């Protein structure tokens, strides 16, 4: 099953009889509230999805920045978005699909046929297609989500991953090498992790690179696609975009959702700094 859909294919799907539910998941770390942009202009019929409240839950800092929502919370949100069983669901954003991928990752193994719009709303607008303003409320849906693991890895899974498979840090090199800490109490990476930034999978126009290109990038980074792969990022969002890219290339992964925001707050977890997985590390 494809994981992304381009603008022409979405336009064609919207003209067919099968219901299409559009999720506007605009969110960025520096602009976490995407509703104003949604209200100004969105794809007709799209509902706004609040990443921090619908695709995450409130938790303790030690759990990471954005803990996963409980199944009943996610199902209630999906019904509020108007999703029924059998619908085609398309998530999009305005930030190279990084936020939309969180919705894709949470729903894909739970019985929802969900795709990510390649290039997001920017690609839609570039095609000269219409947008609408204001809020759009959907009639309540009836979808029943499967109680399935979306592909989550725990903090212990992440610690073991370099020995049992491959651990991939998808943050930028400065964060990986420990030059930037941001809001976290420690800077660096999980010992043994390979650095493959999620931006490597994004083309200049904001679309996802081709499966062939992605596989080439993965292999060039030294990641063996046949091993068990665990991905992590800073807060548990960008890693789902890398999961989307890997999936498009035919490679299944797991995501350590606690991410660096959890690891760096967990006493007794080592922190590595430097350019490679073998560089120096210390206790934290």
UniProtKB/TrEMBL annotation:
<dbReference type="Pfam" id="PF00581">
    <property type="entry name" value="Rhodanese"/>
</dbReference>
<keyword id="KW-0808">Transferase</keyword>
<keyword id="KW-0677">Repeat</keyword>
<protein>
    <submittedName>
        <fullName>Sulfurtransferase</fullName>
    </submittedName>
</protein>
<dbReference type="InterPro" id="IPR036873">
    <property type="entry name" value="Rhodanese-like_dom_sf"/>
</dbReference>
<dbReference type="InterPro" id="IPR001307">
    <property type="entry name" value="Thiosulphate_STrfase_CS"/>
</dbReference>
<feature type="domain" description="Rhodanese">
    <location>
        <begin position="161"/>
        <end position="272"/>
    </location>
</feature>
<dbReference type="InterPro" id="IPR045078">
    <property type="entry name" value="TST/MPST-like"/>
</dbReference>
<feature type="domain" description="Rhodanese">
    <location>
        <begin position="16"/>
        <end position="133"/>
    </location>
</feature>
<dbReference type="InterPro" id="IPR001763">
    <property type="entry name" value="Rhodanese-like_dom"/>
</dbReference>
